[in-house]
Amino acid sequence: MGPAGRFAVYGLAGLAGELAFTGVRGRPHTSAWMLPVYGLAQPLFEPVHDALRARPLAVRAAAYAAGFSAVEYASGRALRRLRGAAPWDYSHARWNLHGLVRAGYAPVWALAGLGFERLHDLLESGQEGGRKSRVEVARKPRCRRALGVR
Predict the structure, then answer these.
(1) Secondary structure, 3-state, the chain
(2) Predicted confidence (pLDDT) per residue in 132-148, tens digit
(3) How far apart, in whole angstroms, are the C-alpha atoms of residue 89 and residue 85?
(4) Which end of the chain is less crowded, N or C, counting CB atoms within 10 A of the terminal residue's CB?
């Protein structure tokens, strides 16, 4: 599957996760603007995941929480400029930054990143024509370069 297809897969997975998350907390809702935001996982998340594969779970989770929060903030700023408002507003939350990110969601983004690891591995294994273990995927040349392994 090419980059555009992977972008769409991440976008749809993100929308599904958001609908599930908001559904548990009340009425499920999301915005069509979130499809490209979640789709950014293809060009941004995949290389980070490849670089962090051999790191401990806590390190990967912290990196994903920080990275997803940064993308949430940047995309929220961009959407505010483009359409006057972001599809979300956390200004009511105690620990928020400009209403675009909130500290309380760091664990949610960490878990989302760990879930996207599985999705990325599934997409990678599909390219090779069969299911591969995490170690086998990490043996790919680009993964080895990202990890600094020769």
Answers:
(1) CCHHHHHHHHHHHHHHHHHHHHHHCCCCCCCCCHHHHHHCHHHHHHHHHHHHCCCCHHHHHHHHHHHHHHHHHHHHHHHHHHHCCCCCCCCCCCCEECCCEEHHHHHHHHHHHHHHHHHHHHHHHHHHCCCCCHHHHHCCHHHHHHHCCC
(2) 455 555 555 555 555 45
(3) 9
(4) C
Asked if 56 contacts 149 with a C-beta cutoff of 8 angstroms, the reply is no
- The domain ranges of the chain are 3-147
Predicted pLDDT at 65 = 97
Rg of the chain, C-alpha, whole Å: 16
Nearest to 63 by CA among 115, 113, 128: 113
**Residue indicated by tokens 């591995």:** 121
